[in-house]
Amino acid sequence: MSGPRPVVLSGPSGVGKSTLMKRLMKDYEGVFGFSVSHTTRNPRPGEEDGKDYHFTTKEAMQEGIDNNEFIENAEFSGNMYGTSKAAIEDVQAKNLICILDVDIQGVKRIKETDLNPIYIFIQPPSMEILEKRLRDRQTETEENIQKRLEAARVDMELSKEPGVFDIVIVNDDIERAYEELKDILIEEITKVQETKS
Ligand SMILES: Nc1ncnc2c1ncn2[C@@H]1O[C@H](COP(=O)(O)OP(=O)(O)OP(=O)(O)O)[C@@H](O)[C@H]1O
Ligand SMILES: Nc1nc2c(ncn2[C@@H]2O[C@H](COP(=O)(O)O)[C@@H](O)[C@H]2O)c(=O)[nH]1
To answer: Distance between CA atoms of 30 and 67, rounded to whole angstroms?
Structure first.
């Protein structure tokens, strides 16, 4: 796969990945493109099909997986998620930096491909703060919050394995975390900006 190096953002649910990513895409319009994943979970209020996710059924998603249309897929908190080859190709065809927001299972699967992204793990300051962010977001049932916190504990352990992530950013203060993210990506950002000027 060609073009600028993609970016994989991973980290526990509720840590702030979407918040950081949306800001990056707003501040650097025409530089980044989001890899729109497929999921079988229901849309949250305000989420748009084809923009936030391709919302689909288990049957349709399984068919796509069986037809080798996905570079990775995983089950998370009782739902299926996956990155289609088309989602990445759509972004790369425009010569944009492709951003993928995937869980740790997705990270492991992507490592088996030739995508060669920059792997970034977003870490919460503490499990207590993560739980508060998840609850305050008011998008999850209690059962889902518990499942997501359990997955977060596993993520936190796996993220400590050497060589899995290129960089770990602690999202305590959003401004500081965002500056750190920008610093890591500035070289790729500049390359894309230069090709457009
Ligand atoms: N640094 C921060 N300080 C306080 N609140 C934050 C911070 N970063 C994000 N948040 C808030 O935490 C909540 C979760 O953030 P967000 O939805 O971006 O997480 P996420 O990692 O994308 O979650 P998911 O993986 O479930 O989609 C949101 O309500 C967001 O406004
Ligand atoms: N392996 C993959 N994980 C994905 C993908 N898209 C999102 N995710 C991860 O799922 C959880 C939950 O997301 P939510 O939107 O329901 O809160 C989160 O950790 C995402 O990073 C994907 O295509 N593949």
So the answer is: 32
